[in-house]
Design a protein that fits this description.
With 544 residues, this protein is mainly alpha-helical. The protein has helices at 6-14, 40-58, 62-69, 95-119, 125-151, 173-190, 204-219, 228-240, 251-259, 287-290, 311-318, 324-329, 380-394, 399-411, 422-433, 439-446, 449-464, 472-477, 512-515, 529-534, and strands at 75-77, 268-272, 307-309, 333-334, 344-345, 375-379.
């Protein structure tokens, strides 16, 4: 049976408003709030309500996409002025921060309600276990997002079923991860295999992959948990050794399928689905418009491209021209207005949008902001790189780690590595997984965020004022009519030809987020001030 992501199947009828304890569905379904969880359709509806909260948080492409990318060595925000927590000049009273925090805790509340009610249901025990596993996977997933963004060593409040209505203090970060691991272990035991799982719902592989990721997070800073690398290797190896999983032969096709709402479970082990059915913005997201390929023409699938790639990332890709990921993730092209949806060359290398997500491939891209573009949570290439990272920490210089990384590079047609190190694995994560919501969190656990922020700022400022720095993309991929200085003699050149010489345009504040970075506080988001006013048991994060 052709089934989309669970919320896409029943979301329109069952979407929950606020943080209700009960789910109302049409009485014609012969299900009331008293017996909702006694039927599979009722349990499915309750699960859809919990999943809908994740859609609500992710739909703006902020906490999952732009925040982990902006003002790292991966990308930067490309607008002037304050934009909430997407730049480093916000405060704990920022409304977007409170909205994100509140959305996550609505998801926690809905999931705890779902788990509590399901535990009392009369469903067959085997069926119930699978639904409970779904719920515990979802709770682990939400707490993982919360902890890595807001928690740190001090952690976040952690209500469970029995404390769902209480105003709680912070739970230590390590204990939050222990609960995440406990939930994922239960999910891994009772979920179906990925071959059997409904597309859009987690299988054993999704739970195993998040377990491997969780152990990597506590293996690194600030926790440095002994034995965590061994556990990460153990869980990732279960996926690596399973013949069900494989790399899509085409890197590009992985993201084409996400744009077209398809499922490639052999590579994309878990993804968040969105829908633009019935032109409903509540089910759709801004992933394609805010975070993808630049398209200025509304009739061609509008793309605002709010986040741009750093010059350092672009040059890493161009240093290995055989690496197909470079031209896909940092494209030198865009679609201007009035050009019949055809490509033209980007004006300056400092204005390369994060081009991994191509909105013009969506089934319905008629809305200028929202569409059905799916979001990748866990890919097989990520698991291979987690496996390599854990293995190389245990056995430095390991050929096993080298082979795992080269599998990822071989798919991209990148030059194979001849040796392996922690630094090379870390760079490979940037090249393979850029713009998928990992970079800032990776740099934090490696203890390298401040180093990369500073280094990227220095490099960008230096190259932007270097009259001898030439953007080779223009001569290789650009308009053919170029002068000796690499500037087009005629055609689509801007009024200020200095842009072609890589001088930063005055209308964009490229360095604001780098200059405003404070290593004493910007490794983590603060607890929203509104939440501190409501819950007096909470203490603000150190540094804020």
């Amino acid at each position: 049976m052709k089934i989309k992501f669970i919320i896409l199947v029943i979301f329109t009828a069952l979407f929950l408003q606020g943080c209700d304890d009960q789910l109302e569905i049409p009485q014609s379904d012969n299900i009331s709030s008293d017996n909702l969880y006694n039927t599979e359709s009722g349990a499915l509806a309750g699960l859809a309500g919990a999943y809908s909260r994740i859609v609500a948080v992710y739909r703006q492409a902020e906490i999952n996409a732009q925040y982990p990318t902006n003002f790292t060595d991966e990308g930067h925000y490309n607008r002037k002025g304050t934009k909430g927590f997407l730049k480093n000049n916000f405060t704990a009273s920022d409304p977007s921060l409170n909205r994100t925090w509140g959305g996550y805790y609505e998801a926690i509340s809905a999931t705890n309600t779902y788990l509590a009610n399901l535990a009392e249901s009369k469903l067959d025990e085997n069926v119930k276990q699978v639904f409970l596993a779904d719920g515990r996977f979802l709770r682990a997933f939400v707490y993982f997002d919360l902890q890595k963004a807001f928690g740190g060593i001090e952690g976040v409040p952690m209500p469970l079923e029995e404390t769902s209505k209480q105003l709680l203090p912070r739970t230590s970060g390590l204990d939050v991860y222990k609960q995440i691991i406990s939930d994922l272990e239960y999910a891994e035991q009772h979920l179906p295999t990925d071959a059997e799982a409904t597309p859009g719902r987690p299988g054993k592989g999704a739970a195993r992959g998040l377990l491997a990721r969780a152990y990597l997070y506590i293996a690194g800073e600030p926790f440095n948990e002994v034995g965590a690398y061994e556990k990460s290797k153990e869980w990732s190896k279960k996926i690596v050794d399973d013949p069900f999983y494989s790399l899509n032969p085409s890197y590009q096709d992985v993201f084409d399928q996400l744009a077209m709402e398809q499922y490639d479970k052999n590579e994309t082990i878990f993804q968040i689905g969105f829908s633009f059915a019935n032109l409903d913005n509540n089910q759709s997201s801004k992933l394609g418009s805010a975070f993808g390929f630049l398209v200025e023409d509304e009739g061609c699938g509008k793309g605002y491209s709010i986040t741009y790639a750093t010059i350092s990332l672009i040059l890493k890709y161009r240093s290995d021209p055989s690496d197909e990921r470079g031209m896909w993730n940092t494209s030198p092209y865009y679609v201007p207005r009035g050009n019949n949806c055809n490509f033209k060359t980007i004006n300056t290398q400092f204005r390369y949008p994060a081009s991994k997500y191509r909105r013009f491939l969506e089934s319905n891209n008629s809305n200028t902001s929202y569409g059905p573009h799916h979001w990748p949570i866990l890919r097989f290439s990520d698991v291979l790189l987690m496996y390599a990272e854990a293995e190389n920490k245990i056995n430095p210089g390991s050929t096993v780690a080298l082979d795992a990384v080269n599998k990822v590079r071989n798919r991209a047609k990148a030059t194979p590595l001849m040796e392996i190190s922690d630094e090379l694995i870390q760079e490979e994560r940037l090249l393979e997984l850029c713009f998928e919501g990992h970079r800032k969190y990776d740099l934090v656990r490696w203890g390298k965020l401040a180093e990369k922020v500073s280094g990227t700022r220095i490099m960008m400022q230096s190259l932007s004022t270097d009259a001898n720095f030439v953007n080779e993309d223009w001569s290789i991929y650009g308009e053919p009519n170029l002068g000796p200085d690499g500037i087009p003699l005629s055609g689509d050149e801007p009024a200020n030809l200095d842009i072609r010489k890589n001088t930063l345009h005055a209308s964009f504040s490229y360095f604001d987020g780098y200059n405003d970075f404070d290593p004493s506080k910007h490794y983590i988001l603060p607890i929203p001030e509104q939440e501190l006013g409501i819950n007096t048991n909470l203490k603000q994060t150190t540094g804020w």
